[in-house]
Amino acid sequence: MSTLEVTLGANIAAWSGIAGAAIAVAALLTAIAAGSSMRRWRTRCAALESNIAALRRELDLAASIGARTGRRVQRVEHEYSDLADRVELVESRGATGSFDQAIDAARRGVDPGKLIQQFGLSRSEAELVARLHGRKKHA
Hints:
The chain is mainly α. The protein has two domains: 1-81; 83-133, no CATH class. The protein has five helices and no strands. It has helices spanning 3-79, 83-93, 97-107, 112-119, 123-133.
């Protein structure tokens, strides 16, 4: 083997070693960067999972409030379902005519139940008319 061949072989070996070391350093830097990136992604994922859990709690709270509101609306609708009929009845009987007639009937001794039937008064209205204008009971 000639010195040229030996020198060339040594140069190739040296360059191969340098290239291998450079590749190893590049791989090490890439691994460090990937690890750092993974830590950032894990932190970000944990923050997002925490936000999702908070959103779920808020959604559960909103659903609970919505359900309670729905039940309240149903209760109010049920309690006041006859209100339209009652308003129509009051409007149809006239403002003072029915009360005047009911007062006259109470003075004649008609009981509240009959006032309700005959004049379309509510129970409280009929009882009030009977108390104010009905015959006084003697003991």
